[in-house]
Amino acid sequence: MKLAFKSLEEIINLIKKGDISSKAVFDYFLGRIEKFDQKIQAFNYINKNGFNEKNEGLYGVPIGIKDIFCEKGIPTTGASKMLENFVPPYDASVIIKLKNAGMSSIGKLNMDEFAMGSSTETSAFKKTINPWGKNRIPGGSSGGSAASVAAGLIPASLGTDTGGSIRQPASLCGIVGFKPSYGRNSRFGVMPMASSLDCPGTLTKTVKDAGLLYEIMNGEDKNENTTLPGKDTINPHIWEKSDLQGKKIGIPKEYFEEGLDKNVRTVIEKAIEDIKNMGAEIIEISLPMTKYAMAAYYIIVPAEVSTNLARLDGIRYGHSSDKAHENLEEFYINNRGEGLGAEVKRRTILGSYVLSAGFYDAYFKKASQVRTLIIQDFEQAFDKVDAIVCPASPSVAWKIGEKSEDPIKMYLSDAYTIPASMAGLPGICIPCGFAESEDGEKENLPVGLQILTPRLTEERLFEIASVYEKNTPWKDMMIPPNFED
Length: 485
Known about the structure:
Strand content: 5-15%
Order of helices and strands: HHEEHEHEHEEHEHEHHHHEHHEEHH
Helix content: 25-40%
Distance between the termini: 10 Å
Number of strands: 11
CATH architecture: Alpha-Beta Complex
Largest sheet: 11 strands, mixed
CATH topology: Amidase signature (AS) enzymes
Oligomer: single chain
Radius of gyration: 21 Å
Strand order of the largest sheet: 1-3-2-4-6-5-10-11-9-7-8
CATH superfamily: Amidase signature (AS) domain
């Protein structure tokens, strides 16, 4: 039975009906990984013994785990040499919830080192390749999570989104990438990058699959004090909606200015027209603080990075250098110099600078004030509209190495996802077509549409995204060539 490009929901229904066993499903996807992963290099570790016999909920269907979620007894590296041999003694909270619901954990997925990057090129171990193009990046930092689902190696995966690390790779790989409101999903057991922004989420084939996993993953966690009280549930009737009558959809003009590839713009504008034809009222809005989001983000994130990564010193755990040293400072320099990559060092140094005496008020405090203004921007916009629709990425997937020598170019690839992260909003990226690359190769590559709703309105987000998905052909067209059984 061919399962590669079936949704999580479809596979679970086949198991329930007795058409296939849970173990056969696990073995099928294990075979897909062994056959095709050499082409895309998405997995850092394959968990051949990860089958879960639980005969309910997720029915043992395998899910891939970004290599940033702690999993008891399973190598978890953060794609860094610093933690190359780290094996956690416990499971992350969302992993526990998913395993209790019947998830089989099938392996750890490659990523940018400690989630710092937008292309999965900063991994210490390998460069993951987008299944849609020769020698193209899958996006990042959850690049392995996106590429593996897009190639049909697994039905779904876990990722984290700090400034777009789920939504951007979902766009570039032609799948659904979902991040909930900040605080919905527990961060306990997830290696921290920027604690006020990090958000566990999912990469799936369909919107409904994202909703299914969200209902399992979300909820209060006594081990993590930023989780919100209670548990969110989704009204099942939203999946039956077929139009957007009565919905007001905002189109922020700032997301369609210079920097957006013209071919991507054409696809997004067609998607907006389709949404109008589904009954929604389209309203142009302005988010004037958007232009400051990138600058504020790259002060707040490095500041939190420098604090969070201070624990990686090679003494308590992490890479320990064999080089001779005369004092403790030299020992630290050797350990971190060898164990951390260039992008991690760059952010750590910048973060230490903006937090240092004399610069805190000038940089970090001002960036935090800008963040408050960005939140107010969105609140005012949502007084007029039910949701905001915009691009998830300014371009299609670029070639490996094309931006790796220019950090600013790389940072700009998250320009459309960072503002929502700064405001803690729920967001989803869904496939909306194909655009030709603008680098002369003329490859047709996936484009994703980003939908945002106010904080704590995940149900509304799923409803709008599901209606769009149902009324367009893109979900069934997102099968990359050369990955059939």
